[in-house]
Design goal:
The chain is globular. It starts with a helix and ends with a helix. The longest helix is centred in the C-terminal third of the chain and has 17 residues. A 5-stranded parallel beta sheet has the order 4-3-5-6-7, sandwiched between helices. The chain has one domain: Toll/interleukin-1 receptor homology (TIR) domain (Rossmann fold, 3-Layer(aba) Sandwich). The protein is α/β, with parallel strands linked by helices. It contains 6 helices and 7 strands; from the N terminus they run H-E-E-E-H-E-H-H-E-H-E-E-H.
């Protein structure tokens, strides 16, 4: 089954469907349908600036799998002239099915990552935050994630086929348990 982003990119949330009538002289019938999409994004990436290269690699891998991903570089045209906190808050609170937090050594030191993590911290309880600890990060940097089965790996291992499969499984699990 394709990821949610596959459908989201091809069908608007409200679309028109044509129902053919049985006979050639019968009038044509138009029907309107709504299709509710649970989240604007499949994934939102949260990372510190020094880890942008790793985030970009992960973003590209998720895009290749046709997921809808919030990645700040791709949203700059929308953020321009907006209150950034008001723009980002709903993305990390609920607009993304999952938040992937790339927890490198600079994550707790940055203003924006602290803001983002404050927005999604309640989502740990619902299993919708995927914490990825870099082996270069000190223990205790982000204690909340240690209770939910965070992974430790090198930044270079992020977009390997194994991690791509793991993220695909997260999407499938969310659709089954809705």
């Amino acid at each position: 089954m394709p990821p949610l982003g596959f459908y989201r990119s091809r069908i608007p949330s409200t679309f028109i469907s044509y129902a053919a009538s049985p006979g050639p002289d019968s009038p044509r019938t138009w029907a309107f349908s709504n299709w509710d999409i649970p989240s604007k994004y499949d994934f939102a990436l949260s990372f510190a600036g020094p880890d942008r290269e790793v985030a970009a690699t992960l973003y590209a891998a998720l895009q290749d799998m046709e997921f809808e991903v919030f990645y700040d570089r791709n949203e700059q045209h929308r953020i321009l002239a907006e209150d950034i906190e008001d723009y980002l808050r709903p993305i990390y609170q609920s607009d993304a099915q999952f938040v992937v937090a790339l927890l490198g050594p600079d994550y707790p030191k940055r203003i924006w990552t602290r803001f983002e993590s404050e927005q999604f911290k309640e989502r740990f309880k619902h299993g919708s935050v995927i914490p990825i600890w870099f082996t270069t990060a000190q223990p205790g940097v982000f204690d909340e994630s240690s209770r939910v089965g965070a992974s430790r790996l090198t930044p270079q291992a992020i977009a390997t086929p194994r991690w791509r499969r793991s993220l695909t499984c997260c999407d499938a699990r969310s659709r089954m348990h809705g």
